[in-house]
Amino acid sequence: MNYKVMLKEVAATVLAGVSIALGAFVYLKVGGVVGATMFSIGLLAVITFRFPLYTGRIKDCNNFIEAPLSLAKILALNAVGCGLISLMIDSAEIVAKCQSIVELRSDAGFWTSVYTGAGCGFIITLAVVAWKRTPLPLLIGIPAFILSGLTHSVADVFYYCVGHEAVDAAAMTAYCGTAIGNFVGGIIFKIGDLSHKLPLTSTDNER
User: Fold this and answer.
1) What is the CATH number of the domain that holds 31?
2) Each residue of 83-108: pLDDT tens digit?
3) Has residue 10 been placed in a domain?
4) Is the pLDDT reported for residue 132 higher than 80?
């Protein structure tokens, strides 16, 4: 890979983080069901421009030895994009909301964050996979995961950066749980793809 292609890939991955951060900002600004629905603009940008997003690329894992490193790089660059947007936030209201979210993450702990992250990972992967057939998983799934308290590792980077004063060891432990959970939720689709490639049994043939 030459440096121009690499630079383009890096920029696109950072822009994925920027897109999700903008969606998160709109959600916090508007609030409620409407705000949660408008968060979808972030993932819409990712899908439309094919920006590499951590939660959107998990389903593409083929090598489970190399994949974690590749996904970690994507998540790190997504985080850079979120950090850039966080630097532009000077609203005390938004900062307070982000601090409240960080405190909720701290209280949740590691294992709860794994579970909520898995739920979010499943929904995001479903939205990405099903987008060409129907936009419903995107338009319904995004507000569903937000309003139900499921956690997205990239959006959480934005919340953590803006509400950084509330970040502590417990919050970082919970973040790790969310990132792992997102992976677990997304990899379910890979298992589904593999199941389609299994040889048919005699019972299946009879059907």
Assistant:
1) 1.20.1080.10
2) 999 999 999 999 999 999 999 999 99
3) yes
4) no
Nearest alpha carbon to residue 78 among 14, 19, 128 = 14
What tokens appear for 17 in the block?
């983080």
- Which two three-digit tokens encode residue 2? 């030459």
Q: Is residue 204 part of a domain?
A: no
| Residue 184 three-state SS | helix
What is the value of pTM for the model shown?
A: 0.90
Query: Does residue 195 register a pLDDT over 60?
Result: no
Alpha helices, DSSP H, located in 31-152: 32-38, 40-49, 54-57, 67-86, 92-130, 136-147
- Neighbouring CB atoms inside 10 A of 87's CB total 9
pLDDT tens across 68-84, in order?
889 999 999 999 999 99
* Total count of domains within the chain: 1
Range of the domain at 50: 3-197
